[in-house]
Task: structure prediction
Amino acid sequence: MRLYTQEYGGEVAGVVLVDPADESSLLFSTTANQWMKLRDQAKSRVVPEPRLTGPPSSGYNPDEDYLGDEARLLYIKRQKNPEPLGDRPLFVLAAGKRPSPPGMSEEAYRDIRRAIDNDRREAAHLSHNSKFLLDANSGHDIQIDDPKAVAEAVEEVVVAVKNHTRLIP
Result:
């Protein structure tokens, strides 16, 4: 979303993020066998240009996984410009139900969940004109668990754009 806005900013009037992850989000790295921030999974490689031709991918190839490296680049850009959306209306809708992964106790997952929840709150700081809402009744798939909440978030952003008003936190 941030890269798209950077490239095509004139086409982006407002943004709704539904339980977003970002470069600082904690994810489990199967390679390192531990929870790590996405940006810390970088392998210091140059990210190639997207392949626009040729056969589609036939499956996951770890040698072609540049997600950590891309996240590191986004992190560097965010350090230089912490509010890349400027004054565009931004609504961040976050999941309130975040159960522990299979095989992990609630107690062991508590600090990880806290960090993940904090990441979602921090996403609202990408704009000077933002609103954050924790949907207590939804998991990560808020669009399925509570489609009305997503529709209302979109509507609030559209109204703010049309009326040139600020979102009410």
User: Anything to note?
Assistant: Residues 106-123 form the longest helix (18 residues). The chain has a mean pLDDT of 92.
